C-alpha cells in the first residue's frame, strides 16, 4: 500500500473511532430515515415555506437574537442547554416577529391595528403600527403588569382595560374594531402571526443545527406552533417540547385528551407568575400542538420562580417568568426522565421575553432577599 493510501486508511479509522464516541442522538442527526410528523391538513394556513418567507420579510425590522450558553444551567440540566435570547428582542419579546409579519401582510394599509393582549403582543402591535404609520388600539386585562401597560402607551397605542377573562378580552376587542374600523390581529391564532413567530426557529436552527430537542413556553401556542411547523419540516427527528405552568395547563390536558380543552377552572383564569402564558390554544394552534408538538411538560410556580431567579443570577438576563417556565422544564426531573441527557445531549430553550413588573417581582420572586 502506498503512503497516501495508508494515510487515508488511518484517517478513516480515526474518523470511525471518533464517531463511536459521540452521543447516539448526535450521530443520527444527518439521517434521512427519521419518521416524518403526522401531516397537517393540506389547506392548513401555516407551512414551512410561509414561515421561511415571514423570516425574510421581518428580518429588516427585528433583531437576530443571540444563542447563549451557561455552565451553571448545563450542570443543573445534566446536558448542554442553548438559549435563544428573545429577551433581547425589540419590545422585549419574540412577539414583534409575528405582529410585524401580520401588519405587513394586511390588505388594508391604512386601518388601525386592534388586538387584545396581556402585554407582550400589545407592545409588538404598538411598535409595528408605529413603524408603519398606523394607529393601534389594544385591549388589556386590568391585571396586566404595569411595566407592560407603560410600554404599550410609550409606543403610542391606545389602551382599553377589561376584566381578566378570555371572553372579556375578545368582546372588548370586537367592539373596538367596530368602533374604529380596525383590523384585528389575534395575538396567537392569526396564521400570519404564527408564521412570523416561526422565524425564531429559522434563526435558531441556523445558529445551532445540532439540537436534539427544543423547549418552548406555551400559552396561546403561536410561538410553539410556528416553531414546530418549520422545525418538523426541516428536522423531523427534532423533539419539540412545550413548557406550561401547571396552573394553566390547558395545552397539556388537551394533548393528553386528544381534544381541545379550556382551563380546569372554567372562565376564571388562574393567577400564575407566568402571566404571558395565561391564554388558551386556538383553532389554528391546537392542530399543531396536537400533531407536531411531541410533549407538554408542566411546571409549578416554585419551579418557575427558581428558574427565573437562576437565569437572572447566573446569565445576568432579566427574563420574565413566562420564559422561566421553559428553563424550569429544561432543568426539571420530568424532562430528564422522559428525555435522558445521553440520548438528548443538546437542548434548545427559547427565552421568550423579559417584560417583568419589577415591583411585583420584588414581592414574589425576590421577597426572601429583603
Automatic annotation (TrEMBL):
Segments passing through the bilayer: none
The record's listing under CDD domains reads: Thr-dehyd
> What is one Pfam family matched by this protein?
PALP
**What is the residue range of the signal peptide feature?**
none
Q: Which domain of life is it from?
A: Eukaryota
Q: Coiled coil: which residue ranges? A: none
Q: Which UniProt keywords apply?
A: Pyridoxal phosphate
Gene3D superfamilies, alphabetically? 3.40.50.1100
List, for all copies, the residue spans of the domain called Tryptophan synthase beta chain-like PALP. 59-353
Is the keyword Transmembrane assigned to this protein? no
The protein's required cofactor(s) are namely: pyridoxal 5'-phosphate
Give the UniProt family note: Belongs to the serine/threonine dehydratase family.
State the name under which the record lists this protein: Serine racemase
The organism named in the record is: Aureococcus anophagefferens
Quick one: which gene encodes this?
Answer: SRR
Amino acid at each position: 500500500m502506498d503512503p497516501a493510501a495508508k494515510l487515508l486508511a488511518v484517517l478513516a479509522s480515526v474518523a470511525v473511532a471518533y464517531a463511536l464516541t459521540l452521543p447516539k442522538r448526535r450521530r443520527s442527526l444527518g439521517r434521512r430515515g427519521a419518521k416524518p410528523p403526522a401531516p397537517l391538513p393540506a389547506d392548513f394556513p401555516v407551512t414551512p415555506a410561509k414561515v421561511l418567507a415571514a423570516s425574510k420579510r421581518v428580518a429588516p425590522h427585528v433583531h437576530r437574537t443571540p444563542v447563549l450558553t451557561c455552565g451553571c444551567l448545563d450542570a443543573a440540566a445534566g446536558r448542554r442547554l442553548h438559549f435563544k435570547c428573545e429577551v433581547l428582542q425589540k419590545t422585549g419579546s419574540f412577539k414583534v416577529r409575528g405582529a410585524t409579519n401580520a401588519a405587513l401582510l394586511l390588505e388594508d394599509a391604512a386601518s388601525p391595528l386592534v388586538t387584545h393582549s396581556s402585554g407582550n403582543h400589545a407592545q409588538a402591535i404598538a411598535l409595528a403600527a408605529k413603524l408603519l404609520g398606523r394607529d393601534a388600539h389594544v385591549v388589556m386585562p386590568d391585571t396586566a403588569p404595569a411595566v407592560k401597560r407603560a410600554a404599550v402607551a410609550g409606543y403610542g397605542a391606545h389602551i382599553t382595560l377589561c376584566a381578566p377573562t378570555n371572553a372579556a378580552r375578545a368582546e372588548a376587542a370586537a367592539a373596538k374594531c367596530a368602533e374604529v374600523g380596525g383590523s384585528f390581529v389575534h395575538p396567537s391564532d392569526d396564521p400570519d402571526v404564527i408564521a412570523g413567530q416561526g422565524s425564531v426557529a429559522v434563526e435558531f436552527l441556523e445558529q445551532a443545527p445540532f439540537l436534539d430537542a427544543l423547549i418552548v413556553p406555551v400559552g396561546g401556542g403561536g410561538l410553539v406552533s410556528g416553531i414546530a411547523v418549520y422545525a418538523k419540516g426541516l428536522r423531523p427527528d427534532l423533539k419539540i417540547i412545550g413548557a406550561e405552568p401547571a396552573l394553566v395547563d390547558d395545552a397539556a390536558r388537551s394533548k393528553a385528551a386528544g381534544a381541545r380543552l379550556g382551563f380546569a377552572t372554567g372562565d376564571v383564569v388562574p393567577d400564575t407568575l407566568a402571566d404571558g402564558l395565561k391564554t388558551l390554544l386556538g383553532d389554528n394552534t391546537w392542530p399543531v400542538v396536537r400533531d407536531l408538538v411531541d410533549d407538554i411538560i408542566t411546571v409549578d410556580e416554585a419551579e418557575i420562580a427558581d428558574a427565573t431567579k437562576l437565569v437572572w443570577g447566573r446569565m445576568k438576563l432579566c427574563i420574565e417568568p413566562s420564559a422561566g417556565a421553559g428553563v424550569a422544564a429544561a432543568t426539571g426531573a420530568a424532562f430528564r426522565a422522559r428525555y435522558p441527557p445521553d440520548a438528548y445531549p443538546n437542548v434548545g430553550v427559547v427565552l421568550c421575553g423579559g417584560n417583568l413588573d419589577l415591583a411585583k417581582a420584588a414581592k414574589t420572586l425576590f421577597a426572601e432577599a429583603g
